[in-house]
Amino acid sequence: MTSRERWTVYPLLILALGIAVRDKFWPASLMRARSLAVETLQVEQAAVAAQLIVPKLKANRIQGALLETNDLSIMASDGTVRASLSGQFVHGGHLILYNRQGKPVLVASVEPASDTGILEILSGEGNPLVQLRSAAGHGVVNAVDRDGSAVCVLGSDGQTAGLFLELPRTKKVLPLRTVPIPPEAAPPKAKP
Description:
With 192 residues, the chain is mainly beta. The protein is 12% helix and 36% strand. The chain has 1 helix and 10 strands; from the N terminus they run H-E-E-E-E-E-E-E-E-E-E. It has one helix at 3-25; strands spanning 71-75, 81-86, 94-98, 104-111, 116-122, 128-135, 138-144, 151-156, 160-167, 172-180. It has a 10-stranded antiparallel β-sheet, with no helix packed on it. Strand 8 (151-156) and strand 9 form a beta hairpin. The longest helix is centred in the first third of the chain and has 23 residues, at 3-25. The chain is rod-shaped and about 115 Å long.
């Protein structure tokens, strides 16, 4: 081999060996690709710069500053739904807590007719037993019997406060213990 050939071959040989062992001495810190398809990927830490789109995500723990979703279900390890939160309703959000059998027992939502909040405690069959609500700007507590035939109401209608018995089937309201609200306790009327 001539000297001229050596000056061509040996540098190329050293360059090829350097390229082959480069990642052994200096691991790559950044890899860019338009598309990456793998069967299994294990990482210690992953950062997504713009948006993560996945059909299904399974994780033991997810931490974040903000979670935006339309619906959220909290499941037990056996797959039973324990709680659900939904923002899909036109009138507002909806939170439901479930018992061990997966039946709803507590509902917090918005009443569409009055656009006010309501909290309901339900029986095992799903019937409301206790309701906390706002009626005409006044707080009301309803205690309902199991079949919904009688409701004991504690609250105010603006002029009278007290305890009432409501019979929904006959559409009767019977005052059990009531007292008129004194004018000094009522909010002042605005001047026209």
